[in-house]
Amino acid sequence: MNPPEIESSRLLLVEDDPNDVELIRLALETGGLAAPMDVVNDGEAALNYLLGEALDNSLDDASQSAAARPLPRFVLLDLKLPRINGIQLLQRLRSHPRTRRLVIVVMSSSQEDQDLNACYDLGVNSYIVKPQDFEQFSDAIQHISHYWMQLNCPPLPTALPS
Predict the structure, then answer these.
(1) Minimal CA–CA distance to 29: which of 150, 151, 147, 138?
(2) What sign does the dihedral 78-82-87-92 (CA atoms) show?
(3) Cα–Cα separations (whole angstroms), residue 64 to 1, 38, 53
């Protein structure tokens, strides 16, 4: 089977705080980096979006079409999420052939060593602590987007087993 496609300009934001979602949108627009962005607000929704998996692993028409959807250029992931937290989500994504090489950037308020180390052990591409100041937050989002959307050469997706 062929590897999944990557949509070169799309970002997936996994964030449950609506204020942070709006700040990220505003920062991207202000920086002239308004790429198409899909938003999901918990780990289960992220699994459905990326793998077409529900928590009970049942496949329906919607999940089958999600599995055929091109992957985003990168995922911007918060750790403190409802239902499935960011670290559990990383475990699932890194163990699945479709998302094993997907670029995932964690942006979290957590500065805990155990979170940082767990994320890097699971193959996260970058870990950024959310700045508390609006201007620094906006600058960070613009730098992240510019680097991962324009400068970085993402890995080729892993071919899915037949």
Answers:
(1) 138
(2) negative
(3) 15, 18, 9
Comparison of pLDDT for 75 and 160, the residue scoring more? 75
pLDDT, residue 155, reads 84
Tokens linked to 152? 């970085």
Element (H, E) at 146: helix 134-146
Residue 22 has pLDDT above 50, yes or no: yes
Residue 126: what are its φ and ψ, rounded to 5°? -160, 150
Average pLDDT over residues 140-159: 86
3-class state of residue 60 by DSSP: coil
Residue 9 makes CB contacts below 8 A (sequence gap 6+) with 35, 36, 73, 149
**Per the confidence metrics, is the pTM higher than 0.90?**
no
